[in-house]
């Protein structure tokens, strides 16, 4: 395996309940995804650490979580009425586990290297924060210098972030769109690589190895 010229800061995130939902226009059911996209962590690092353009990606550890549904009725303060109930899928600790656990990898650079001085800190992440969801503990584990590997991408990142993350080749993309925050109150949709894309890149991004004839 070839060692990439990339250094990542590895963090462990733990929580009792978290909802990172698919953005679906309309509808009353919002499924929860099982990864933490770069766009979600960009907003999280901005809000919690004041970092405007950090690059990080996360993956929930298999076996630490299971899905459940929380139903609530949004209140329209202007009209003074409750809207149609929305059912939101979320992750909670699996039976026999104490917390939902995720691994987060941030690209080490001049803006993020000070995060390595944080032993443990409480942050907020995801949706339904006003309902008590997304209260997390973030703990720094250490630096990682990943190897190059060809396989199936296990997360979601913007297409224009591939080079920054050390992805050297996209063999077979699975495209989707992520909401990219441009300010605290607005953003745009940008094309992204989703789970199942076949890439050549850091082994921390790869779920399963893919072998092919080059």
Net shape: globular
What is the tally of helical segments?
1
Mean pLDDT: 90
Element-level helix/strand string: EEEHEEEEEEEEEEEEEEE
Q: Which blocks of ≥5 consecutive residues have pLDDT under 50?
A: none
How many angstroms separate the termini?
16 Å
CATH C-level class? Alpha Beta
How would a crystallographer describe the biggest sheet? Answer: 6 strands, antiparallel
Query: What's the architecture in CATH terms?
Result: 2-Layer Sandwich
Say what the CATH topology is: Alpha-Beta Plaits
The strands making up the biggest β-sheet line up spatially as 3-4-9-1-11-10
Computed Rg: 18 Å
Proportion in helices: under 10%
Beta-strand percent range: 35-45%
Label the structural class: mainly beta
Number of DSSP-assigned strands:
18
User: What is the multimeric organization of the chains shown?
Assistant: single chain
Structural domain count: 1
Tell me about this structure:
With 214 residues, this protein is mainly beta. It has one domain: Alpha-Beta Plaits. Helices cover 6% and strands 44% of the residues. It is built from 1 helix and 18 strands. The strands form 5 sheets. Strands 3-4-9-1-11-10 form a 6-stranded antiparallel beta sheet, covered by helices on one side. A 4-stranded antiparallel beta sheet has the order 14-17-12-18, with no helix packed on it. It has a 3-stranded mixed beta sheet with strand order 2-8-5, with no helix packed on it. A hairpin with a 5-residue loop joins strand 15 (175-181) and strand 16 (187-193). The longest helix is centred in the N-terminal third of the chain and has 12 residues, at 38-49. The model has no long low-confidence stretch (mean pLDDT 90).
């Amino acid at each position: 395996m070839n060692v990439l010229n990339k250094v990542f800061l590895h963090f462990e995130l733990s929580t009792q309940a978290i909802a990172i939902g698919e953005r679906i226009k309309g509808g009353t059911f919002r499924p929860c995804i099982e990864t933490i996209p770069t766009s979600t962590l960009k907003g999280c690092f901005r809000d919690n650490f004041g970092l405007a353009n950090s690059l990080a990606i996360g993956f929930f550890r298999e076996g630490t979580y299971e899905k459940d549904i929380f139903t609530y009725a949004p209140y329209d303060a202007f009209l003074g009425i409750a809207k149609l109930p929305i059912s939101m899928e979320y992750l909670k600790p699996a039976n026999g586990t104490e917390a939902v656990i995720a691994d987060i990898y941030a690209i080490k650079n001049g803006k993020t290297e000070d995060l390595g001085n944080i032993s443990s800190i409480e942050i907020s992440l995801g949706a339904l924060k006003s309902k008590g969801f997304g209260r997390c503990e973030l703990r720094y584990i250490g630096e990682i210098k990943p190897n190059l590997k060809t396989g199936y991408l296990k997360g979601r990142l913007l297409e224009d972030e591939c080079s920054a993350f050390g992805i050297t080749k996209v063999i077979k993309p699975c495209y989707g769109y992520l909401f990219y925050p441009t300010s605290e109150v607005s953003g745009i949709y940008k094309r992204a690589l989703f789970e199942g894309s076949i890439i050549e890149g850091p082994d921390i991004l790869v779920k399963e190895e893919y072998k092919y004839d080059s």
